[in-house]
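[step 3/7] fold_predict: job queued, chain A
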Amino acid sequence: MTGTEQRSEHRAAPPVQVAGPQGPWDAVRERAEDTGRVVVHTTWGEWLTAALLDPDLRTLLGRDWPRYRQTPAPAGRFAFAVSRLVMKRTAAAVLDVPPAALDVAYQPGGRPTVRGLEHDLHLSLAHTEELIAVAVSRGGPVGVDAESVTRRASFELLRAHVCTPEEAEVLAALPDAERNARFLRLWTLKEAYTKALGQGMRRRFNAVGFRWEPDGSARLAEESDAARDWSFTTRLIRERYLVSEAYRAAGPVEPRLRPDPGGLATPWLSPAGTLSFPGSGRTGGR
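[step 4/7] structure written:
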């Protein structure tokens, strides 16, 4: 199988909207079974009432309960609780187990993980404004990031921190509006990729380069077998948010619960349409 065929095979299906604790969890489970992973999205407002009235909230939050209680601002506290509930319920749907059966912890770099599985279940969480996005993978590392398309990031201020020299050169030649859209997409891709690696903001974004295929899809600029294993997708959700996913397939696994292993650190497109990089004949990371 060629690298292009692999990337096509691994390309993500559209994210699943979960409008509240009621799901649709069957659709989430089926998506994970079909493709090896799933991305879901919702807003914290859609979950808030049900979350606050849930008598099992403390049990469901688990080791996140102290942080929830210690978050001073109500809006931040509620958004924190909902994001963790969405993540836990999504993981539970993928594994087909009750949410309360899962113990979600955090690795030293902050990446969430489920304790007590025979095989890794890869989790990633992103939130911006009202949006919450969660990615769960049974087949390999996954990362997700989200950003509002209305955000106006300062390219001049951030270019040296976010872009490789090649990416910065391409972006600098664009009109302001187009530059901002492309810059936000590049930023979310790098966030998603470094989250999938378990490195987050510890990895310098200007050390990670992307290039663009003729169809507008993104891939790592590095020419290696390891780089070609990664696939990337950016979609426009709710006509307002960019949601980028990074995924590396590593073969199917069937996570099963096992005894606790011990310590861990605690509007240019239609909705959900895949974003094509305008002018994608150019390369942005080479």
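[step 5/7] annotate
The two ends are 24 Å apart (CA to CA).
The mean pLDDT is 80.
exit 0
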